[in-house]
Structures are given as C-alpha cells and as structure tokens.
Specification:
Layout: H1 21-28, H2 44-51, H3 71-74, H4 77-92, E1 101-104, E2 113-114, E3 139-140, E4 147-154, H5 158-161, H6 166-194, E5 203-206, H7 214-223, E6 231-234, H8 236-243, H9 251-260, E7 270-273, E8 281-285, E9 291-295, E10 300-301, H10 303-307, E11 314-324, E12 330-334
C-alpha cells in the first residue's frame, strides 16, 4: 500500500501553527517520493483526492456529498474550499503588479520599517579617501500596519448542496475569492493614496486641464525620478480618458487591445484598471519599492464547521494589510477638480 493511502486525516491538521493543511500532508507524505511514478506532479492533497476517488473538476465532477463518504475524506473539504477561493483571488488579483514585498506574519501586530532619504541621499557622491560614507537611515515606523479581515460567510445547508456538482460550487467559491481580491486592492489603493497611517497623502501632480493630456502624463513620469514609473492605476472614467489621449492612439497598441483585451503601456508603465477608484485620479508608482503587503496566514476557513457539514454561517476570510515603503515612489495625477 502506498503511503498516501494509509494516512489518517483529522481536524487537528488545520490547527498546526505556521502550516497549511497541504503542508502538513506534505510533511507526512512528501511529493518527492513519487518522482517517476504515475502520481508525479500531484501534491499531497491531490493524492488524497485520488485516494478517495473524488473528482473535483470537469464535466464528470462528483457531487459534494462525495467528500463526506468517510470521516477521513470529510477532512479534505475545508482545503477544497480554501483552494477554490484562492483560485478566485488569483484570477482577479492585481496586487502582484503593485507589491514590492510580501511579509508573512503569525500575529495581529506588525510594525514595519521605513527609510526617508533626502534628495542628497539618492545620489551616491564620491567619498574622499578616509572619509566616512554617507548614511542611509532605516528605522521602525511609529505605528502598526492596519490589518483588514476580508471574507464572506457561507450560508447554505448541507442538504441544499449535497447533490450539487463540485465544479458548480467551485464557481461560487471563486467569486468569493474575486470579491476578496477586489477588496484588498481597495485597501492597497487607500494606502498608496493616504499612507498606512491614513495621514500622509501621496504627492500630487495637477493636470493643466479638465482631462489628462500627454504633457500631464509626462509630468507624472518625470515627478517620480529617480524612481521609475512602471505601474499605473486608474478608475474606469480615468481609463477612458487615458485611452482617448491622441498620442496613445497608436495603431499597433489599439490592435493589441481590440484583439486581446490587454491594455497598452503608456510611457512603459503597466496600466491597471481599478473600477472602485475615485474618478479624477491616476496613481503612478515604482512597483519595485512602493508597497509592502503584510499577510496573517492565507485563506482561513471554519474547518470544524465544514468538516461537520455545518455550512450555515461558516466563514471564509483573509487577513492582510499594506504599508508604503518609499513615499516618494508614489505620485498621483489629479484632474477635473
């Protein structure tokens, strides 16, 4: 009998400090041991699905009740929920295009660091022989990073779901993940605009007219120097304004947008659409040094409730916060006011 077929699965696997359910499984049944076998390419969780004959996707997916055929197989259900929600987050997630560093913590309190270089500090001048090198001061911020809990409550009885196909339920869970991703993006935008203390607005560049012109975009690009403008965030009305700037109506860029839906890159920056942003603002930043994401674990589920088929009022949530690293690496183009 293969190792994965004899594992005892239980609720306690979800409570291991610093480890996810899959990581606990991997420690008991390492994937490296399946190299060169038909199970190569499956992780420890996927091998457990195979063990119990649970088909979680595709036209022939099983019904949800298949998870609850035994006590061991029921322990797989919360991880299925968490993975489906993560898929939804990844499908909608713009944060990888904005975040310079992601910090994982195991508490609810986190104080990050900051460095506030003067203009003189941004250029490394020659140091005479024997002279002291210029200093870069790094210190702990005087406030904690504000962590937000984002999630949804599952409100449905097991009886209502037991005969539903798993892949259909996955669609609902992915939407929960998409909602979480959009909410976290709003949190990140708020920090970019107002700082992680809520009292430090990003420096603004005012447009000359009621709508942004090419000269305004160039001014935004120049205001970030010596940082690079490589990411831009805009609301739907702002995106329309940018797309209508004459200098950006390049035939090849338009063909790419019409054919693939991929937005062009004004001045070399990755243009990102955020429908929830306020109109009249375009955020420009250097994504390599502007924003830190702080996560307190991954997707959290009420594992006990889900294993015991108590889907009513079972929560799915993520705890995360954001901090500006270098304030000067963010600028906001304002217009229309």
């Amino acid at each position: 009998m293969a190792a994965y077929e004899s594992l005892k699965l239980e609720k306690g696997m979800y409570g291991t400090p610093g480890k996810t359910f899959t990581q606990v499984l991997e420690s008991l049944d390492p994937s490296a041991g399946y190299a060169g076998t038909p199970l190569e390419g499956l992780d420890a969780y996927q091998r457990q699905l195979k063990r119990f004959g649970i088909r979680a996707g595709g036209p022939g997916s099983d019904r949800i009740e298949k998870f609850f055929q035994t006590g061991d197989s029921a322990a797989l259900f919360p991880e299925y929920v968490a993975r489906s929600v993560r898929q939804g987050i990844e499908m909608e997630n713009l944060l990888p295009s904005l975040v310079a560093a992601t910090t994982q913590i195991d508490s609810m309190d986190y104080r990050t660091i900051e460095s506030v270089p003067a203009q003189d500090d941004k250029s490394l001048k020659p140091a005479a022989e024997g002279a002291a090198l210029p200093q870069t001061s790094v210190r702990t911020k005087d406030h904690l990073v504000h962590l937000q809990k984002r999630g949804r409550m599952l409100v449905a009885s097991y009886e209502a779901l037991r005969f539903q196909r798993i892949d259909l339920f996955t669609v609902t869970l992915r939407q929960i993940g998409a909602y979480i991703a959009r909410a976290q993006l709003s949190d990140a935008v708020d920090v970019l605009l107002n700082g992680d203390d809520g009292k430090t607005p990003a420096a603004a560049v005012a447009a000359a007219g009621a709508k942004p012109a090419y000269a305004d975009m160039v001014a935004l690009w120049g205001s970030l120097s010596p940082y690079r403008l490589n990411a831009m965030l805009a609301s739907t009305p702002a995106m329309e304004d940018i797309l209508n700037i004459a200098e950006f109506k390049d035939a090849q860029a338009g063909l790419n947008f019409q054919g693939t839906g991929k937005l062009f890159s004004p001045l070399g920056a990755n243009l990102l659409h955020n429908p929830d942003m306020a109109a009249g603002k375009i955020i420009g930043l250097d994504k390599t040094c502007a924003l830190e994401m702080v996560q307190a674990g991954g997707v959290q589920t009420d594992s006990d409730r889900l294993i015991d088929r108590q889907l009513e009022r079972a929560s799915v949530s993520v705890i995360a916060g954001f901090s500006r690293i270098f304030d000067d690496a963010v600028r906001v183009l304002t217009y229309g006011s």
